[in-house]
Design brief:
The structure holds two protein chains of two kinds. Chain A is an alpha/beta fold. Chain A contains 23 helices and 16 strands. Classes of the chains: A alpha/beta, B mainly alpha. Chain B: This is DNA replication complex GINS protein PSF1.
Chain lengths: 568, 196
């Protein structure tokens, strides 16, 4: 059931209890977890934090902890599946689920006792009405009627027979109709997968209601929201309206800055609204590198072609930026150039067809040297979360590192993350360039398909879901810019990359088509399930996003064929 | 040269200046005591000779040996006392049960001394702080909060805290627990205090 008053029905309930936090492995969940941890520290609520990366992890963690905890808080996992059936908990376990995955499973919505959803109901949920899906009194009535009829004396039974048979046929027909309609409603409801309001924002609102919100928590909420935008989980409209909500909180926290006499020390954290360039990590890199490796500019200029490179040089010359300055580290660029940089770039990029080079976002600065944009932090934390640096790195090790990098006093962790993010972006850009130039993207009819061979450089980076999704997004955008085929521009993309060479598995990701007004609804979850069933391929639907699965390499071709027939 | 062995004992302790307890150097101590005995005998003989025969030229050597004896005595006292101070610090660091390798380095008398120190510390702690006494070996620095956030570095298994609840300590899980229960595990290196 949905919880509207988070303070009364969630926070006060767990106030004197011990709680288990099961947190999924994405940045929004990490931010939400940090906010909740800070709140728990304030009120000394004892908790245990366990990172989970998939459904199997979740089940194992639950089994291990169910003896000791009664209250479980699940962050960014658990809403889109029938949780009670999967975990089989005891009757007194209570689950608080704060998840951005939609659609929320109907059992979770209509369970009144054990499952509490910390989800805003004005998110367009479209949950079917109770009576359309559940009908538990009718069956009892049916069997009761029949047994009644059976116990009547045999003489009377012959007389009532025809009427009774007719009524029974009528009831059965109505039941079949109801069931068909129910299947249809559920199919429509569960067909598309999408994401709702950021979990970090929901917990920040809880903190605000408790008046325990701090600038750190506000910053984490902003990072959570930006993560949804960077990894393409929400529509642009929703992003803009959520930014407006956050802007209200930011101005509320910033009112002290305006007082000239008692202004804050330079070491205090200051969050500011920025209408900044869409160049990833440009403050921590050189401007040239950032333009080359941000997907927006790289795709608009088509930097994998020679013509594109020339256009870039033209663009820089048009703005009057000398190459030597542009290739330097951003912080060492000439101050006269840096002053009007954003406006100059916006003007020039309008001429080259890039209308949205600027995006609304937030930046933070504390101390003289440390200035970060929200998207910088998202990229750094995501790179740390999925780093393949050390061979034996446990996913939980990476989780802890990424969690640490979000705190203000772990700046070297953050800087390491930024370096990793740069490497990741360069790798993505090179892979995109090679895929487009060698025409690795094939149109299979209802969708586009691309397979990364095992020997591709940096292919290990792409065995992780977030990195592969980012690559998918950039590749699709680049493909749309480079192809002449009008029909192909509207197709979704499925990408496969080797995940584990010894076990012989690949990871398969599907993303919806790239368009301006896309509502980011992804139907590949159900499609993958059906295709796997029909070909009995050995698949593992372990990830919380149903559009990301693992598949055995040998079953790849028959799985694809099944998908093609399913979707055409 | 006289007193060299005594200086060796001191140097041994000085080498381990971070409070570690080296093994009790019984051999060295015995050698120093033997040297002292030898010096004392010689001195006795010389004093008797000086008194009876009246040889005044023996007096400087008597004085020299006497100084050496005093020096040796001072070195041995310093050695034994410094060891006792280190053992006392061990009680505050490790608690009342010492790890086996440390106990191996103590002599029998030192073990006895440790037992008596433990007893007197315990009776002192019982006498202050009301009925149950106050454990002053906890919280050596004033704590900032009742509960601390800890991260588990190795798989440990189940851990019971005061109110009976059991926590499963798995690698890389984080917990928010009462400070006094965690200190023991932090010292053992199983948990790590996370400051955020």
């Amino acid at each position: 059931m949905f919880i509207t008053d988070l303070r009364k029905n969630f926070y006060d309930v767990v106030a004197n209890q011990r709680v288990a936090l099961l947190v999924a492995a994405d940045i929004d969940a990490l931010c939400a977890c940090k906010i909740l941890q800070a709140l728990f520290h304030c009120d000394q609520i004892q908790y245990t934090l366990v990172p989970v990366t998939g459904w199997q992890d979740l089940s194992t963690a639950f089994l291990e902890h169910k003896e000791q905890f009664r209250y479980f808080v699940l962050i960014n996992c658990g809403a889109n599946v029938d949780l009670l059936e999967m975990l089989q908990p005891d009757d007194d376990s209570i689950f608080f689920i704060c998840d951005t995955h939609r659609p929320v499973d109907v059992v979770n919505v209509y369970n009144d006792t054990q499952i509490k959803l910390l989800i805003k109901q004005d998110d367009d949920l479209g949950v079917p009405a109770y009576d359309d899906i559940f009908r538990d009194d009718e069956d009892g009535g049916d069997s009761g009627n029949e047994s009644d009829e059976g116990s009547e004396p045999s003489g009377k039974r012959r007389r009532f027979d025809e009427g009774a048979i007719e009524r029974r046929i009528e009831r059965q027909r109505a039941k079949r109709e109801w069931e068909a309609r129910r299947r249809e409603i559920l199919f429509d409801y569960e067909q598309y997968e999408y994401h709702g309001t950021s979990a970090a924002m929901i917990f920040f609102e809880l903190a605000w209601v408790l008046t325990k919100d701090t600038k750190d928590m506000l910053w984490w909420a902003i990072i959570g929201l930006t993560d949804q935008w960077v990894h393409d989980k929400i529509t642009h409209m929703k992003y803009v309206s959520d930014i407006a909500t956050m802007q209200r909180h930011v101005s509320r926290h910033n009112h002290r800055n305006e007082d000239e006499e008692n202004s804050l020390s330079i070491d205090c954290m200051r969050i500011s609204f920025e209408y900044d360039l869409r160049l990833t990590l440009y403050h921590h890199w050189s401007l040239y590198e950032s333009i080359c490796n941000s997907y927006y500019t790289a795709c608009s200029f088509k930097l994998w072609t020679l013509k594109g490179q020339k256009k870039l040089q033209e663009f820089l010359a048009d703005m009057g930026l000398p190459l030597r300055q542009v290739k330097q580290k951003f912080n060492s660029m000439d101050i006269t150039i840096k002053e009007n940089l954003r406006d100059v770039i916006e003007e020039s990029s309008n001429k080259y067809g890039m209308k949205d080079i600027r995006i609304q976002t937030f930046g933070v600065h504390f101390g003289f040297k440390n200035r970060f944009l929200a998207s910088d932090m998202v990229h750094a934390a995501a790179a740390l979360l999925e780093s393949t640096e050390k061979e034996q790195n446990d996913t939980t090790d990476n989780f802890i590192k990424a969690l640490d990098s979000l705190s203000r006093n772990n700046l070297d962790c953050l800087k390491a993350g930024i370096d990793l993010a740069k490497k990741k972006l360069i790798a993505i850009q090179q892979t995109v360039a090679s895929c487009i130039c060698t025409n690795l993207i094939l149109s299979q009819g209802p969708f586009l398909y691309c397979y990364l061979m095992e020997g591709t450089p940096d292919v290990k980076l792409f065995s992780k879901p977030l990195a592969l999704t980012l690559l998918c997004k950039y590749l699709l955008k680049a493909f749309v810019h480079s192809t002449r085929n009008k029909r192909c521009k509207l197709l979704p993309l499925i990408m496969a990359a080797p995940k584990d060479v010894e076990k012989g598995t690949v990871i398969v990701v599907g993303i919806p088509p790239d368009s301006e007004t896309s509502d980011k609804k992804n139907f590949f979850g159900r499609a993958f399930e059906k295709a796997a069933e029909s070909t009995s391929s050995r698949t593992l639907h372990d990830h919380f996003d149903t559009s990301i699965i693992e598949l055995k390499t040998e079953d790849r071709s028959k799985f694809l064929d099944a998908l093609i027939t399913l979707l055409s | 040269m006289f007193c060299e062995k005594a200086i060796d004992l001191i140097r041994e302790l000085h080498r381990m200046s971070d409070g570690q307890l080296p093994a009790f150097n019984e051999d060295g101590l015995r050698q120093v005591l033997q040297e002292m005995e030898a010096l004392y005998e010689q001195n006795q003989a010389d004093v008797n000779e000086a008194k009876t025969i009246g040889r005044a030229d023996l007096i400087p050597s008597i004085k020299l040996r006497h100084c050496c004896l005093l020096r040796n005595q001072r070195c041995i006292f310093a050695y034994l006392y410094d060891r006792l101070l280190r053992i006392r610090a061990l009680r505050w660091e490790y608690g009342s049960v010492l790890p086996a390798n440390v106990r191996f380095h103590m002599s029998a008398e030192e073990v006895q001394w440790f037992g008596q120190y433990k007893k007197s510390l315990a009776s002192f702690m019982r006498s202050i702080g009301g009925k149950e006494g106050l454990d002053i070996t906890q919280d050596m620095k004033p704590p900032k909060s009742l509960y601390i956030q800890v991260r588990c570095l190795k798989d440990y298994g189940e851990f019971e805290i005061d109110d009976g609840t059991v926590i499963l300590l798995k690698k890389n899980s984080q917990h928010f627990l009462p400070r006094w229960k965690c200190e023991q595990l932090i010292r053992q290196g199983i948990l790590e205090h996370v400051m955020s």
